[in-house]
Design goal:
Layout lengths: L1 E11 L10 E9 L13 E3 L6 H13 L5 E13 L4 E11 L7 E5 L10 E7 L21 H5 L10
Parallel strand pairs: 1-5
Antiparallel strand pairs: 1-2, 1-3, 2-7, 4-5, 6-7
Amino acid sequence: MKYKAFALVLRPDRPDRPDGPGYRLLALSGYAPCTENPTPLRFPGGNLDPGDTPEEAMYRELFEESGLGRLKLLRKLGVHRYYKEFIQSHVERHDFLLLAPVHTPDRWTHVVTGEDGDTDYRFTYQWLRADETVSLSDELTTFVTPEHIPELFECAAPGSFQDG
């Protein structure tokens, strides 16, 4: 069994956005060194190290893969268990919802740090509207629903956020 933790990060839209108020969800596309093929859009996250809690692993992976520090934890979205053919293993994935400040950049690229297998990969970050989440890797969309993240799908005005 592989134990993983992922950060699903919301950011309030900037007031000057032409498409109105609401929230966006952080997604990354990545490139391995010496390759030109991007990975599908996904969220920052990865394996738990021995002794890690899922929350500790999620914050470590978020920092290593995006450069973002300890963002506000809104709530744990849930745990999903499944078999992943590519790695020939069962997976237990813990997903957390976090809130980034409104001034977080619209796009940025980060070179992965740490000691995992993705060290030195380049990840490019962008913010997705609810209708753009169809471009995410199917593996990671379990909790990307109006029931789990209503803030993303209801176009709630920034500042009206409820800590679930």
